[in-house]
Design goal:
Helices cover 16% and strands 43% of the residues. With 279 residues, it is an alpha+beta fold. The chain has two domains: 2-119 and 266-275, Diaminopimelate Epimerase, Chain A, domain 1, CATH 3.10.310.10; 129-260, Roll (Diaminopimelate Epimerase, Chain A, domain 1), CATH 3.10.310.
Length: 279
């Protein structure tokens, strides 16, 4: 089975062109290819599929084999692949995801005409507590207390097609993301588990983010998580409409005016291609 390894700000996935390849057991394949020692090594598996009326479809699996609705960094790479392989020279693409339609715009190309930087319209955030989902039957889940692992924290939650829990901390670099994130991921407040963003504010236009992703652990970047941070920061009056987010794997630019959709711009990079046993 042929695969493509791509990364967006260090959030790396194995991609299969399902226009051409048949995948029978994607959950098991995701676990196999993602293993950092016995597989290719990745944060998960993404199938790039045909979908009538769209340029393509993204079907995503975490490294533990669980299905996920959305990944912003992964979607930029899907857009790059669709552009470079099937729609070279076109600026705008329509892609179906587990969270619905998302549109992509190619904003930069390299010397060969291949997409190198992509802007994704990530859709409108979902604030209603039960729709995120959380256990809170409230119009918005903001600044809730959470005591975990001996720490008193405060979180706000939002969905960007998948659930997020945003926590602002004084210093994110030394924060115990693994131990705290793992506990919050499976907390009873979040019936379908949750992605957790730990964020340090540098200024109203700039933050540092680390993310614990459900089903994958700490990743070098999370696109939907960056959107969640921009939305919550703007909603709480902590950040401005345009926000630069520094992630372990690089920077993303987020735009959110306080209403409407969130736009995310960042790199999409092909790392290498190869063959992997299908069975």
């Amino acid at each position: 089975m042929q695969f493509i390894k791509m990364q967006g700000t260090g959030n790396d996935y194995v991609y299969i062109d399902a226009f051409r390849e048949a995948v029978d057991q994607p959950e098991e394949l995701a676990r196999r290819v993602s293993h950092r020692h016995f597989g290719i090594g990745s944060d998960g598996l993404i199938l790039i599929k045909n979908h009538a009326g769209f340029d393509g479809e993204m079907e995503m699996y975490n490294s533990d084999g669980s299905r996920a609705e959305m990944c912003g960094n992964g979607l930029r790479c899907v857009a790059k692949y669709l552009h470079d392989t099937y729609a070279q020279g076109r600026d705008d693409l329509r892609i179906q995801t587990g969270a619905g339609l998302r549109t992509a715009r190619i904003v930069e190309r390299d010397a060969r005409g291949m997409a190198s930087r992509v802007c994704i319209d990530m859709g409108e955030p979902i604030f209603k507590g039960l729709d995120i989902p959380t256990v809170f039957d409230e119009p918005a889940v903001l600044q809730k207390p959470l005591e975990i692992a001996g720490r008193k924290l405060e979180f706000s939650s939002v969905s960007m097609g998948n659930p997020h829990c945003v926590i602002f901390v004084d210093a994110v670099r030394g924060f115990p993301v693994e131990s705290v994130g793992r506990l919050i991921e499976t907390h009873a407040y979040f019936p379908r588990k949750v992605n957790v963003e730990f964020v340090q504010i540098l200024s109203p236009t700039e933050v540092i983010q680390r993310t614990w992703e459900r089903g994958a652990g700490e990743t070098w970047a999370c696109g939907t998580g960056a959107c969640a941070v921009a939305v919550i920061g703007r909603r709480l009056g902590l950040t401005t409409d345009r926000l630069i987010i520094h992630l372990t794997g690089g920077d993303l630019v987020l735009e959110y005016s306080g209403s409407g959709t969130v736009k995310m711009t960042g790199p999409a990079v092909e790392v290498f291609r190869g063959d992997f046993p299908a069975g």
